[in-house]
Amino acid sequence: MDLLQLTYFQKVARLEHMTKAARELNVAQPALSMAIARLESDLGVPLFDRHGRQIRLNAYGKAFLARTDTALTALEEGRRELADMTGLEHGQITLAVTTLNRISELLGAFLTRYPDVRFRVTQAPSEEKKSQLLEKGDIDFFFSYMPLQHPEINCLPLFTESILLAVPPSHPLAGLTSVRLQDVAEESFVSLKTGYSFRDITDSYCREAGFTPSIVCVGDEPAAIQGLVRAGLGIAFQPVAAAHNEAEASGLHFLEISEPACRWTLHLLWRKEHYLSKAARHFHNFAVDYYKGDQEENP
Q1: 249-288 residue pLDDT tens
Q2: CB burial class (10 A; 0-12, 13-18, 19+) of residue 117?
């Protein structure tokens, strides 16, 4: 058993497809199949159930994959730790986010100060997917608007902002500056798809106000929501930062919600046992200071 066999097995186990794994690993499929066969021979058990050309990870394979993930993660963290100690690299930071809008300025500001640091950013469609990446050690941090209570994960609130309602300029509510959420219970809403943290949070506020929103259009592009509101399809929840940045360009009217107080908080999460490189530690401290200043300017 060697490191290359473990790396090959991890890829095949995650994809459960030999051809796709060979392509991603940039190796010939026969060589990959032979490596997996040798690994199974060394272990004395089959790791996959084979049905024709299809393969499925079996109980032995699932157990061994968990140990393989742990071993390869530990080796990678050891490599990064040694690189930090010897100063042989400028650093790489891996992140997962639901939407890039809220952190793009943070990343730009950090790279202005540390131009040699490299980022690898995964845009995950759900909080559950990001949690899986974090727990597996595939990422250093993820940015979440949903707090996570987990004994192995740190959860640090960074920034809290209000949530507003966006309405077209011709809407009867456009003459107001604020509204109670229960007063728009009969309105049509444009919203993100279920699974996005912003959708989950705004749905919870609607339940608190005593209604389920009538959603006439859903999408997975936050930037497109304002265009649909402007077209007259309905009204929409919007973070205050998006409202301030796009108010003039969007031509929309934004209302404060007086009751209940609708807010959401950006959290930085990382696994306690995950090794953080110097670059990652600098990024952690930079993000805390960056959003602290932002919060002081926009209380």
Answers
A1: 668 899 999 999 999 999 999 988 888 888 888 899 999 9
A2: buried
Residue by residue, DSSP assigns 211-276 as: ---EEEEEES-HHHHHHHHHTTS-BEEEEHHHHHHHHHHHT-EEEEEEES--EEEEEEEEETTS--
- 164 with 255: CB under 8 angstroms? yes
Answer yes or no: same fold for 86-158+265-297 and 160-264. yes
> How far is Cα 293 from Cα 81, in angstroms, rounded to an integer?
31
Spatial distance between the Cα atoms of 60 and 91, rounded to a whole number of angstroms: 36
- pLDDT, tens only, 73-118: 888 888 777 776 555 456 788 898 877 777 888 999 999 988 888 8
pLDDT one-digit tens code per residue, 156-192: 999 899 999 999 989 999 989 999 999 999 999 999 8
Rounded (10°) angle between helices 18-25 and 29-43: 110
CATH 1.10.1200.10 fits 86-158+265-297, yes or no: no
Q: Are 281 and 117 in contact (CB under 8 A)?
A: no
> How confident is the model over 12-24, as pLDDT tens digits?
999 999 999 999 9
- What is the CATH architecture assignment of 160-264? 3-Layer(aba) Sandwich (3.40)
Q: Beta strand pairing status for 178-180 and 92-97?
A: unpaired
Vertex 130 angle, CA 125 and 134, to 5°: 165
Q: What residues does each domain of the chain span?
A: 3-83, 86-158+265-297, 160-264
CATH class of residue range 3-83: mainly alpha
